[in-house]
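Lecture 7, part 2: worked example. A protein chain together with ribose-5-phosphate.
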Amino acid sequence: MDTDALKRLAGEEAAALVQDGMVVGLGTGSTAACMVDALIRRVAQGLKIVGIPTSLRTAEQAQAGGIPLTDLGAHPRIDLTIDGADQVERGTLNLIKGMGGALLREKLVAAASERLVIIVDDRKLSENLSLPVPVEVVPFGWQATDLRIQALGGRTVLRGGADGTPYVTDNHNYILDVDFGAMGGSRKPETLDAALREIVGVVETGFFIHRAETVIIAGEGGVTRWQRSA
Ligand SMILES: O=C[C@H](O)[C@H](O)[C@H](O)COP(=O)(O)O
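Predicted complex, written out as structure tokens:
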């Protein structure tokens, strides 16, 4: 099975968890897009839900496919959010998210959700989180914020568009991708996350610590589910 087929498998498995009457958080990225496609098909067959998208592009996809949308103002409590991830740590189910730039809205939606279900293909699994973590920063004075982040021991790259200008998030901020190398031991993701969030100018990080309730993993052998222990 190619990666796209695995993403579809995970997306369809997760979409089957959605029930009539739910407020559903709609994630961002190529795997989440497969789940939104599966939900669009179910809505066309009569499923009654409202969705809260985590990015403008997910909003566009859902709206074009006929999923009624709402927001956290009207529905501050979400029944179930289904989203992708860039890396999942075995054992803890801690995540790195935000390669697609949607980390802030994804975290706001996750924080309002009763359940967060993450969908990935098995390439995303890792013993320890090790990818560069996306950090959303305020554009004003981002260079000073960058220096403070580097002082934590991370190598930083300002995310750029194809034309060399900074990538701008849906919230009009920039993203620094921060490479801490493989984490674990004394360099715990939760410690780095807390230190990053204390820096003025940092809006949010792509660390999702103790947030995923379930991870649905698609691999050659089919679908596996991991549950976070309490
Ligand atoms: O900002 C983007 C999100 O966190 C995505 O859920 C994440 O990057 C995974 O995306 P994909 O399913 O395309 O690998």
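Residues 27-32, 83-86, 97-103, 106 surround ribose-5-phosphate (CB under 6 Å). The domain at 133-204 is CATH 3.30.70.260 (Alpha-Beta Plaits). Keep this in mind for problem set question 3.
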